[in-house]
Amino acid sequence: MESSLELTTSLPGTCLPPPRSRIFKIIVIGDSGVGKTCLTYRFCAGKFPDKTEATIGVDFREKVIEIDGEKIKVQLWDTAGQERFRKSMVQHYYRNVHAVVFVYDVTNAASFRSLPAWIEECRQHSLGQEVPRILVGNKCDLRDAVQVGTDPAQKFADSHSMPLFETSAKNPDDNDHVEAIFMTVAHKLKSQKPLMLSQPLGGEGFMPMRKSEEEEEKGVLACSC
Ligand SMILES: Nc1nc2c(ncn2[C@@H]2O[C@H](COP(=O)(O)OP(=O)(O)OP(=O)(O)O)[C@@H](O)[C@H]2O)c(=O)[nH]1
């Protein structure tokens, strides 16, 4: 299995169209400060960001991964946790979602208690049970400050039929783990072929949308890999 931040283009001098890749749109949601930006950055850039600021609206990051010889574009939508920064964007990022990653902070019980509200928001935006979901408890490196133990988290995950991953976007030893979390989702999606959208690998890096949606979203989305 290999992964790359680079996108391929068609060979110069050939008339072959660029290869088409499937895209997985995965939204990452949870309270402000739980580490959504750090987790998505860690997966796409392979490191913990030097500094982060509260996400405004939504950022998206992409990474091309290879599963069973097929190159797949994983598009992570890092959403704002703060209500005031997300209101106007909500309906945009719930469109054409293939999977949802719910994140809480293991050192912040309130972020765990908020999970039902995030699940409810997904339901209100018509994300059915057929859309794979996973639960991530982040900041496990802060061992002395843990407020949410594995047991209640596992119970919650089981009651919502989600796998639970406890990890740290910061701990260098957890790099493979962060990668494994998103790769698990990608593997799951790859087996659900009918859900996929596709676009040329060398394309604009954005999922195909209807023209009106495209115009509507111009100027409000930022890519900050
Ligand atoms: N110790 C530790 N700190 C982390 C970890 N992940 C994120 N942080 C810190 O937590 C703070 C918030 O991280 P962000 O990734 O910006 O949080 P967010 O969920 O994207 O926040 P919003 O954009 O406001 O929704 C930052 O100071 C990060 O450095 C982690 O795994 N361990």
Global Rg = 17 Å
Small ligands present = guanosine-5'-triphosphate
Shape: globular
Share of helical residues: 25-40%
Beta-strand level of the residues, as a percent range? 15-25%
Subcellular location: Endomembrane system
Catalytic activity: GTP + H2O = GDP + phosphate + H(+)
GO molecular function, one term: GTP binding
Keywords: GTP-binding, Hydrolase, Lipoprotein, Membrane, Methylation, Nucleotide-binding, Prenylation
Verbal overview:
The protein has eight helices and nine strands. Strands 1, 2, 3, 4, 5, 6, 7, 8 and 9 form a nine-stranded mixed β-sheet that branches. The longest helix is centred in the C-terminal third of the chain and has 16 residues. The chain has 225 residues and is α/β, with parallel strands linked by helices. The site of guanosine-5'-triphosphate has 20 residues, from helix 1.
